[in-house]
Amino acid sequence: MTTGPLGLDAALWGVLACPCPQHAPVVADELSGQIACTKCDARFNVLDGIPIMLLDATEQG
Ligand SMILES: [Zn+2]
Questions:
Q1: Which residues contact 37 (CB under 8 A, 6 or more apart)?
Q2: 2: CA distance to ligand 1 center in Å?
Q3: How far is the CA of 31 from the centre of ligand 1 (A)?
Q4: What is the pLDDT of residue 25?
Q5: Could you give all domains of the chain from N- to C-terminal order, each with its CATH number?
Q6: Ligand 1 centroid – CA 37 distance (Å)
Q7: What is the pLDDT of residue 60?
Q8: pLDDT of residue 58
Q9: Ligand 1 center to residue 1 CA distance, Å?
Q10: What torsion do the CA atoms of 26, 18, 51, 53 make, to the nearest 10 degrees?
Q11: Is residue 59 scored above 70 in pLDDT?
Q12: pLDDT beyond 90 at 16
């Protein structure tokens, strides 16, 4: 198992997608320690190595 950005499994980054209608790829925001959507600017927290990919759990605006 290879560790990728934010301490998540590198393989996970290949399958992670934003739950927004575009299902856009996501990238690591190393500064905030969050996952950021490349389309809708949604952000997702990582708790204990698990990405919380819930739109209503993000702080938007
Ligand atoms: Zn999105």
A1: 18, 20, 24, 26, 43
A2: 25
A3: 19
A4: 96
A5: 5-55 (2.20.25)
A6: 5
A7: 52
A8: 46
A9: 27
A10: 160
A11: no
A12: yes
Cα-to-centroid distance, 21 and ligand 1 (Å): 7
Region label for 58, one of left (φ > 0), alpha (ψ between -120 and 50) or beta (otherwise): beta
Residue appearing with tokens 């198992």? 1
DSSP per residue over the chain, as a string? Answer: --B-GGG-BHHHHHH-B-SSTT--BEEEETTTTEEEETTT--EE-EETTEE---GGGS---
- Which residues have their alpha-adjacent CB atom under 5 A from ion ligand 1? 18, 20, 24, 37, 39-40, 42
